[in-house]
């Protein structure tokens, strides 16, 4: 039997090991044999093998070459495990679905906390090729993802995810469920992309620019925060008071701003 893998700080590795949380995550995902499952960062395979047992096949994206042989060895006799050795930020999920001959992927993973936001934004870029996502993240990040307008943690991440997905926090996971224990609490969250026919039609680049500028200095009014992008008249034309702050706007208000005219 292989000795436990040594977690690497450079990859932000914290291996989930507590069985009851593993079972809760697998139950939340509820894999089926006809799913095309993709796991980001399988680590020691805590989620990989239970998912593989039910689905029969799984594609894992792993950057740590030391973990790949042991994952392949342990998968033998359980199911078909395909491992993509790559930085997940460079993986084209849309192309992956096309090569597999499927319409959409289901993605899961215990994400490295230090790059969780870039991974989330990368996945959203491929939302049309994804059925749902189940991620373990730092609890603080999940709180920000699901925050409502007016909350102190409502911001750019909240808006950009909520205009693209339904965000559903599921349950918290304590540090002791990992090896080594992280210094923060964790949470599991479900993201369900909004169907293409129901998604907004604002220009993604302009929406991103407006949201980024609006929250760059939270205490500024919209007319001040967005002065390089649109004037007060244009903000009013979108049905929004130029004197309010970004934190008071609903996600779709930002879509209305992005669809309005530029200064």
Can you describe what's shown?
The chain is α/β, with parallel strands linked by helices and 263 residues long. The protein folds into 2 domains: 9-198, Rossmann fold, CATH 3.40.50.150; 204-259, Helicase, Ruva Protein, domain 3 (Orthogonal Bundle), CATH 1.10.8.100. Helices cover 35% and strands 20% of the residues. The chain contains 11 helices and 9 strands. It has helices at 19-29, 48-55, 68-75, 93-100, 116-125, 139-146, 156-162, 204-216, 222-225, 232-237, 251-259, and strands at residues 15-16, 37-40, 57-62, 80-85, 105-110, 130-138, 165-173, 178-179, 186-193. It has a 7-stranded mixed β-sheet with strand order 4-3-2-5-6-9-7, sandwiched between helices. Strands 1-8 form a two-stranded antiparallel sheet. Helix 8 (204-216) crosses helix 11. The longest helix has 13 residues, at 204-216. The protein is elongated. The protein starts with 14 loop residues before the first strand and ends with a helix. Residues 7-11 have low confidence and may be disordered. This is Ribosomal RNA small subunit methyltransferase A. It is an enzyme of class 2 (transferase). One of its GO terms (molecular function) is methyltransferase activity. Residues 21-195 form the Ribosomal RNA adenine methylase transferase N-terminal domain. One of its GO terms (biological process) is methylation.
């Amino acid at each position: 039997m292989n000795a436990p893998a040594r977690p690497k700080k450079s990859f932000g590795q914290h291996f989930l090991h507590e069985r009851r949380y593993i079972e809760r995550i697998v139950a939340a995902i509820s894999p089926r044999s006809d799913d095309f499952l993709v796991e980001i960062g399988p680590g020691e395979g805590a989620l990989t093998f239970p998912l593989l047992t039910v689905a029969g096949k799984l594609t894992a994206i792993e950057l740590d070459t030391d973990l790949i042989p042991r994952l392949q060895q342990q998968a033998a006799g359980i199911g078909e495990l395909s491992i993509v050795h790559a930085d997940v930020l460079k993986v084209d999920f849309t192309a992956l679905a096309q090569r597999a001959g499927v319409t959409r992927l289901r993605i899961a993973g215990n994400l490295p906390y230090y790059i969780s936001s870039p991974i989330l934004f990368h996945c959203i870029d491929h939302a049309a090729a994804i059925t749902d996502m189940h991620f373990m993240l730092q609890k603080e990040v999940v709180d920000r993802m699901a925050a409502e307008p007016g909350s102190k943690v409502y911001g750019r991440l909240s808006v950009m995810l909520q205009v693209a997905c339904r965000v559903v926090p599921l349950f918290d996971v304590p540090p002791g469920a990992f090896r080594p224990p992280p210094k923060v609490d964790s949470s599991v969250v479900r993201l369900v992309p909004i169907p293409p026919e129901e998604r907004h039609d604002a220009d993604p680049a302009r929406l991103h620019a407006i949201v980024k500028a609006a929250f760059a200095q939270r205490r500024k009014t919209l007319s001040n925060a967005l002065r390089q992008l649109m004037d007060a008249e244009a903000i009013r034309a979108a049905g929004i008071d130029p004197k309010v702050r970004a934190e008071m706007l609903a996600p779709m208000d930002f879509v209305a701003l992005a669809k309005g005219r530029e200064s």
